[in-house]
Amino acid sequence: MKLGFEESQTPYSSGSQSARVWTERWVNEWIYCPNCGSPKISQFAANRPVADFFCSACSEEYELKSQKTKFGTRVTDGAFRTMCERLAASNNPNLLLLNYDLANLSVKNIFVVPKHFFVRKIIEERKPLAATARRAGWIGCNILLNQIPDSGKIFFVRDGKLQPKESVLAQWKHTLFLREQSADTRGWLVEVMKCVETIGKDNFDLDDVYAFENRLSDIFPNNRHVKDKIRQQLQFLRDRGYLDFVSRGHYRLRSPE
Question: I need a labelling partner for 55 at 20 to 30 A (CA). Which of 27, 128, 159, 176 fits?
């Protein structure tokens, strides 16, 4: 995989427009499908709504967003209502996020957020456009990257360094069980996964997760048995190979294999 764009001339007077062309071409030439390992994903025809790329081998779809700086806590996306409808759709695309070095015409970081991490809580509704705007009243949305666990951000390239393909495929497979769950179930599982990551150690106790009871109660105000729910989610994550059960009340994060 080459990280340089290799274009000597800018196709547009605007650097951002040129970068869009370069990044799309680079993804089309170099990014493999993290779901099935197919060596190449293909670009949809121009102006297709929602998705930009697809895998002809397994039909996974991908939406690409690129920018010069590293992605922060949120990513601007399209219409809020459309995004909410997409959350339950089978063809909701995975999200590719790429940041580039325009001076050196190269890729600095690119990672994928699998679509099974897209739950309602990570979609932020933006204010309607002003009455003076061309699309007055239109409501967009943001994707809250800081609400996605680290296990939901799988890097192909990190800080200019190519990550091993076998590691990328293993990380993808490690959380694929989420795709089988309903949106509500995924919401709980993702939140507990975030709590476990926040603990900051591979080996942890049930009490370490109970410490997040108030936070989880705020997120899920209709659930009055949060500790019971925490234990249920930990058991589920254990059964799906995300955690190892060490002993009564003791767990260990399992590394992707």
Answer: 159
Report, at the CATH architecture level, how domain 15-163 is classified: 3-Layer(aba) Sandwich (3.40)
Is the pLDDT at 27 greater than 60? The verdict is yes
Residue 9 has pLDDT above 70, yes or no: no
Write the DSSP assignment of 209-252 as a string of letters.
HHTTHHHHHHHSTT-S-HHHHHHHHHHHHHHTTSEEEEETTEEE
* 124: β partners: 142
Q: Are 188 and 219 in contact (CB under 8 A)?
A: no
Would you list the domain boundaries of the chain?
15-163, 183-253
pLDDT score recorded for residue 6: 66
Q: Are 121 and 219 in contact (CB under 8 A)?
A: yes
Q: For residue range 148-165, what is the model confidence (pLDDT) as tens digits? A: 999 999 999 999 999 999
* Distance in angstroms (rounded) separating the CA atoms of residues 168 and 152: 11
Return the exposure string of 43-69: e unless at least 16 CB atoms fall within 10 Å of the residue's CB, then b: beeeeeeebbbbbeeeebbbbbbbbee
Cβ(58)–Cβ(38) below 8 Å: yes
Statement: residue 36 has pLDDT above 70: yes
Return the structure tokens found at 248.
């009564």
Maximum Cα interatomic distance, the chain, rounded to a whole number of Å: 63
Residues of the chain above pLDDT 70, percent: 94
Quick one: CATH architecture of 183-253? Orthogonal Bundle (1.10)
Dihedral sign from CA coordinates of 65, 69, 72, 78: negative
